[in-house]
Amino acid sequence: MKDRTNHKIIDCTIRDGGLVNNWDFSVEFVQYLYKCLNEAGVDYMEIGYKNSPKLLKGSESAGPWRFLDDDFVRDVIQNKLATKLSALVDIGRVDENDILPREKSPLDLIRVACYIHEIDKALELVQLFHDRGYETTLNIMALSNVKEGQLDEAFEMISDSVVDVVYIVDSYGSLMPNDIHCLVTKFRKHLQKKRIGAHMHNNLQLGFANTLEAANHGVELLDCSVYGMGRAAGNCPTELLLAQLKNVKYSVGPVLDMIENYMIPLREKEEWGYIIPYMITGMLDEHPRSAMAFRRSAAKDKVLQFYNMLTVPDVKG
Amino acid sequence: MKDRTNHKIIDCTIRDGGLVNNWDFSVEFVQYLYKCLNEAGVDYMEIGYKNSPKLLKGSESAGPWRFLDDDFVRDVIQNKLATKLSALVDIGRVDENDILPREKSPLDLIRVACYIHEIDKALELVQLFHDRGYETTLNIMALSNVKEGQLDEAFEMISDSVVDVVYIVDSYGSLMPNDIHCLVTKFRKHLQKKRIGAHMHNNLQLGFANTLEAANHGVELLDCSVYGMGRAAGNCPTELLLAQLKNVKYSVGPVLDMIENYMIPLREKEEWGYIIPYMITGMLDEHPRSAMAFRRSAAKDKVLQFYNMLTVPDVKG
C-alpha cells in the first residue's frame, strides 16, 4: 500500500447521517463522537450544515446540526482537541451574515457542495469563506452524470480560484473503482495546484473500495462516516478506513467504542446501508430519492416491482 | 470495463449459505433459486457439499444439501436447464464410492477445497473426479496466510495436474484489491494453462470490489451468492455481479425476484453480512470462528470488548 502520510480523514457522520434522522442527534451523542474521533486520530469532524433556516423553508423540525449556530457549537465542543471541525453549505442556502471571521468561530473548514452548473456561484462562496480565514473545499456532486466538456470548463475556473481542495463526489453511488481511477487521473492532471478529496456512497458496496482506490492514486482528503451512516446506502465506513490506512496516527478502537455505544442502537431505529432499492438506483446511476420514497411505502421490500418501475417502459408509464 | 465474455458466474448460495443455517433450505427454496439463476443467466449453481456423513460426525442435524445424494438432487432438479450444477468437497470428508460417473449424476462440476499443505491430497481427488468425467476446480483456502515458497511448490504440482480451474479463496475476507491484483498476476504467470477463479468474502465490504478486481485482471470463474448469503460476513452478492458484468447474457431481475420472495424473509431469521466482529477478524486476517462464537454470546454487540480480546495482550490472557 502506498504512503499515506498526506491523507486526512473527514468524518461526516453528523452531517450526512443527519439526512437519515433529520439531524436528531443529542448533544451527548455529538460530544461522545467528537471524543472518539479525536482519540482515533481522525483529522476533521463535519458537525453539520451551515445553511440558514431562513433560506430553507420546511425544515423547522430538523435538529440543530442542520443549521449550525457558532455559539451553540462552541457550547457543545467546549474544549477543542486535535480534531478540527467542518461544516457544509449548499448554494443558495447560506446567509453571508452567519459566517463569522474564523478566529471567532469554532469551525475550521467550510465546504461548498454544488452541481457542475453552479461552479461559478460555489467559487464566489469559497472566496468569501477564504477571505474570512477558513480552509475551503469545493465538492462537485453527481460527477457520474457530468459530461467531459462541462468538466474542462470547470477545471479552468477552479484553477484560478483560491479553493484548497476539490472533491470528487459519487452522489449516486454508481461509480466503479475503474471510474474513480479515471476521474482522479483527470482531476490531478487539470488541477495540479489543488489537493483532491473523495466522497463515496455505498449503493454497490463500493464506498470503501472506491475510497481506497482514490487514496492509492493520490487523493488526500477521504470522507467517511461511522458505521457508514449516511443518506440511503450511506458512506465509506470510518472504521474500515482507520483499520486499513497504514498510518500510525490512526487507531480503530475508539470508533468501535462509538459503534458499540451509539451506532448499533441507532441502527435499530434508523435505516441506511446496503438495501436493494438503493442498490438499484446505484446501478441505474440515479438519485436515490425514488428508492427513499419506496422504502417509506408499504411495498418497501418488493424489490423486483421497484426495479420494474424504474426500467420497464410499461410499468414506468 | 474489460471484455467479460469468458466470465462464468458460480452462485454458492446453498453451499456457502448453508454454513449460516445448517443447510436448512426447503426443496421449494432450492427449486425457486435454480429457476431464478437460470433465468438470470448464471452459469453454475453450487447446490451443496458432496461430503459423506460417515466421515463427518456430529452433522446429523444438517439439511440434505450438506451431504448431497445424487438421486435426491435429481428429484429436486427434475429438468436441468442451462445452469449447470456444482458441489464442493473437503479433503478427508469424501467417500469415493459416492461419486457416480458423470453421465449418471446430475452434477457437472466438483470442486475440491483445501489448505496449501493439502494440495497433494486435493489433486488426487481432482484426478478421481476428472476420470469420472466431471469438470474440476481446486479451491486454495486461506491464501492470505500462505508463504511465497509454499505457493511456488503448489504451482508446480498444479501445473502437472488435470485440474481445469484454480481458485484464489480469500477465506478470512482480509485481502485488499491490491493484494488480489498481486495474487492474480502470480497465479496467471505460474499457471498459464489453467483458468483462474475467485471466491471472496465480505468482512471489509470488499467482496464485490475484489471480485471485480479479479475479473478485470483475467480471472474467469467468479463466485458469489444471492444477497451475499454466506458464513459470517458472507460473499460477493450475485445481484451486484449480474448488474455490473457487461455481458448481455446476464440479467439481474430474476435474482431480485429471489431476494424479494426468499432472501429478505430469510435474513430476518438468520444473520450474515457486514457485522463488526466479522470486520474485526477480517482486519486481523483471522478465521471468523471467534467472531461467530461471540455473536452467539450475550455480549454479541460489545464490539470494543471483542476487539480488545483479540488484540490487547492482557485481555487475550
From TrEMBL, chains A, B:
Superkingdom of this protein's organism: Bacteria
Annotated Pyruvate carboxyltransferase domain residues: 7-260
Entry-linked InterPro entries: 2-IPM_HCS-like, Aldolase_TIM, PYR_CT
Entry-linked Pfam families: HMGL-like (PF00682)
Keyword Iron-sulfur included in the entry's annotation: no
CDD domains associated with the record: DRE_TIM_HOA_like
Key words, A-Z: Manganese
Record's keyword annotation contains Manganese: yes
Record-given protein name: Aldolase catalytic domain-containing protein
Organism (species): Paenibacillus medicaginis
